[in-house]
Amino acid sequence: MTSPHPDPAPATRPDDAADRSPAPGDATVTDVLIVGGGPAGLAAATVLGRSRRSVVVVDSGEPRNAPAAGAHNVLGLEGTPPRDILDRGRRESERYGVTHIRARVTDAGRDGDLLTVTTDDGRTLRGRRLLLATGLTDVLPDIPGLDEGWGRDVLHCPYCHGWEVRDERIAVIAATPQSTHQALLFANLSDRVTFVTGTVELDDDQRSLLARAGVETVGSPVTRVSRPRGVGGVVHLHLANGTEMEVDAVAVGPSFESNTELYERLGGTPAEHPMGHHIPAEPTGRTPLDGVWAAGNAGDLMAMVESSAAAGVTAGSMINAELVMADLPPA
Questions:
Q1: Lowest-pLDDT range, 4-13, 255-264, 281-290?
Q2: N or C: at which end does the chain have fewer Cβ atoms within 10 angstroms?
Q3: What residues does 286 pair with on adjacent strands?
Q4: What is the pTM assigned to this prediction?
């Protein structure tokens, strides 16, 4: 089941002045178009704005981490609500002339040497470079009731949410090849972890690892999830063998699917990953497509808030360096 919370983050206000900070020579062309206003897109926008680049960030207002009460492992902002972090990031970038547009990008293409994006409110924007900070979509197992608690009592990352469920009853539902490792990580936080293997076959090494970590295994698949006290209370797992498990939290490994639609519209091919698909990009953010860059979860399925922002800083600085060289007069 697909989570309704893809990564791009919200803008605080619509702004019709997409060319407020025009590129030299053409007031209708922006130096850098950024699709996605999450940590990666906002960090890149600030770096570029501080380098006196004209920047337009287009964002649809649907942050992936919206259900979470707080973002964790963010230096100086530990536990801050995700939307508050994004609001602060937008205000910071606006200090350097960055323009934000609340819209969904529906298409991307080329106009000669320029990159173009089309929005659902009828705008067509042109830029010298395009940064895709479009994030990813979490695809959960198709278990009724599972996605209702996503980001609250249904978790996947022990580093993002593990402290909040320490010492509690945690059921890890096997869903990916990494599920055994996930169970071991949660077992480091609680001695009441149960691994629900369902139809997944464990080899002898996996069973030994789980047993050594004190993790109980249950072999019957989960058919549905219910919450008699509402989300954030006790969670009931209904099993195919007719039994029922009562836990405090559920951990599950979704498939991570980078939002690659625009990259594909430009002729790119997504790269495969053991946990899903993503936009192929160098550590700098450069993709195989000329003028197209990627940062955050669009290119790195495992990136958290802090590492996504760091990737945005790197991509923004490298884009600026490329534009510096492109703007030099001929020798």
A1: 4-13
A2: C
A3: 293
A4: 0.87
